[in-house]
Amino acid sequence: MKYYLLAVITTLFLGCWNAPAINSNYDFSQVSSIRLNKVLDHSNKYGSGQIMEDNISFMFMKNGYDVSQTQENGTLISLNNHAQNNLLLTCTLTEFTDRETILVPFRIEDRGTIETIITQSTEAGENKNTAIATTSTTTTADGGSIQESGRVEYTQARVGIILKMTDENSGLLVWSHSYWYSGIELPRTAQVCAKNAVGLIIKLLEKNK
Questions:
Q1: Among 204, 202, 180, 2, which Cα is nearest to 93's?
Q2: Which of 60, 92, 107, 137 is deepest in the core (most CB within 10 A)?
Q3: 3-class DSSP state for residue 113?
Q4: What angle do the packed helices 48-62 and 186-207 form, to 10 degrees?
Q5: Cα–Cα distance measured from residue 111 to residue 109, given in angstroms and rounded to the nearest whole number
Q6: What is the pLDDT of residues 124-174, one digit of tens each?
Q7: Given pLDDT bands bounded at 50, 70 and 90, which one contains residue 3?
Q8: Residue 187: which H helix or E strand, with range?
Q9: Contact 135, 119 (CB under 8 A)
Q10: Which of 28, 32, 26 has its CA nearest to residue 84?
Q11: What are the pLDDT digits (tens) for 58-67?
């Protein structure tokens, strides 16, 4: 039973990790700003696009970047006032599932027990000066039992995204990444998914300063 519970707990907090695709010829040190395109809702959840857009903006702000949101320009992340190039960041929601019920069946096996009793006795022989020792062994076993009807139930939320950055002037695709994350609550799951994905962008920018 404990092994099944361990598997369930592990599954509750999983993310798919893979390295992003990067255009190694692009000079990221010359990026002035990143403009986040409007994130469209996933078919499963109205307002999911705005949720993810707000989470991405929050993660950039939390890491010390200036983020502005205007009616005309949308969400703009400022990086380097002395640089010239601008990037467009597009986020597509591939999954946005709330409280999906997962059933994990399990089987408990009781293999039974085996009990062995050894008894010894001493009897006098024909010659009173001699004795004969006898030993008897009794073994009992029960067959145990198997329970197959048990199951573990839990609910999980799951968010998946595809991110890509293109050069605003040339349209050149310079960076792309896909990511998904599973958790218990949808708001927290969306936040962690955005945190991990944006963290890779920040790592790329810091590396090329």
A1: 180
A2: 60
A3: coil
A4: 40
A5: 6
A6: 555 556 556 666 666 665 655 655 555 555 567 889 999 999 999 999 999
A7: very low
A8: helix 186-207
A9: yes
A10: 32
A11: 999 999 999 9
- Of residues 5 and 112, the one with the higher pLDDT is 112
- The half-sphere exposure of 187 on its side-chain side, counting CA atoms within 13 A, is 1
Place of tokens 């409280």: 99
Q: What angle do CA 153, 112, 5 make, to 5 degrees?
A: 20
At the top level of CATH, the class of 2-106+149-207 is alpha beta
Distance separating alpha carbons of residues 40 and 51, to the nearest angstrom: 10
- Residue 75 in tokens: 């969400």
- Using only C-alpha atoms, what is the Rg of the chain? 32
Amino acid 114 reads I
Cα gap 1→159, rounded to integer Å: 29
Q: Is the pLDDT of residue 11 over 70?
A: no
Which two tokens mark 95? Answer: 């999954």
Give the 3-state secondary structure of residue 131. strand
Helix (H, G, I), strand (E, B) or coil at 163: strand
CB distance 185 to 157 below 8 Å? yes
